[in-house]
Amino acid sequence: MKKYLIGLAVGLALTVACVAVSSARDKDKDKKKADDKDVAAARKDVLEVVELVKANKGDKDVEAKALAIRKKDVAINDLMMVYALKENGGLGYGVKPDDKSGIEAKLIALQRGDRGPSVATIKKENESLIKLAHLNIAMAEIARPHFPGPKKVEGKTYGKTEWEKWLADQKKHSKELLAAIEKNDGMAVNKAAKKVFESCTECHSAFK
Q1: Which of 17, 61, 109, 192 has an alpha carbon within 20 to 30 A of 24's alpha carbon?
Q2: CA-based Rg of the chain, rounded to a whole angstrom?
Q3: Measured between alpha carbons, how far is 71 from 185 in angstroms, rounded to an integer?
Q4: What is the pTM of this model?
Q5: Do 70 and 127 touch, CB atoms closer than 8 A?
Q6: Measured between alpha carbons, how far is residue 123 from residues 126, 127, 173 in Å?
Q7: Is residue 37 exposed (0-12), middle (13-18) or buried (19+ Cβ within 10 Å)?
Q8: Bridge-partner residues for 151, per DSSP?
Q9: Cα dist from 144 to 59, 82, 90, 131, 195, whole Å
Q10: How much of the chain is in helix, strand and coil states, percent to nearest 5?
Q11: CA nearest to 132, candidates 163, 183, 160, 90
Q12: In angstroms, rounded to a whole number, what is the distance separating the alpha carbons of residues 2 and 63?
């Protein structure tokens, strides 16, 4: 019995040690990604498109910039990193983003419940919420030229028609989100955020 307990204790200690090492490696990997030059350059490209959207430039200007990014052969995964937590290479969320904040995390938070954020919260976070909506509009256009080719998932083939549809949906619902923010309408913010996230999830499920 004593030998069994000693063996169990040693096994538990080794398991904890392995988990700790694995966790440390994951953190190192995340930090490396956050410091990656390609990710930083991609982030700069994304923010330039966000500024075009913010300035209410026409679709042609935004599409031209998105195509220019594609011609530079910027990896879509590096561009998508803007959604990650700030500590992992993302933009973060807020005027002064906390390391644990992120665009995707905030988009998820906006969907909780049915009432959405309060009027006070929308007013307080107005600038950051508007930037979030602008970024989603920008990313819909940035991703468009990066069609990876048809993908087969569980026997069904998804092609450019679905790619274009989901990106168009993302852009449309992001504009609805922007309008809801400008009206300080929490329920509409909640509804639009759900639709934006749904279009993103459908696209990632097919073209992951």
Answers
A1: 109
A2: 21
A3: 39
A4: 0.83
A5: no
A6: 5, 8, 20
A7: exposed
A8: 158
A9: 13, 16, 20, 20, 18
A10: 75, 5, 20
A11: 90
A12: 71
* pLDDT one-digit tens code per residue, 119-153: 999 999 999 999 999 999 999 999 999 999 999 99
Tokens 């979030």 sit on residue = 132
Asked if the model's pLDDT at residue 46 lies above 60, the reply is yes
The owner of tokens 């026409």 is 58
Token pair for 8: 């169990």
Q: Give the 3-state secondary structure of residue 74.
A: coil
Residue with tokens 């639009």: 192
* Paired tokens of 111: 């969907």
Tokens of 128: 């950051």
The tokens of 81 are what? 């990193």
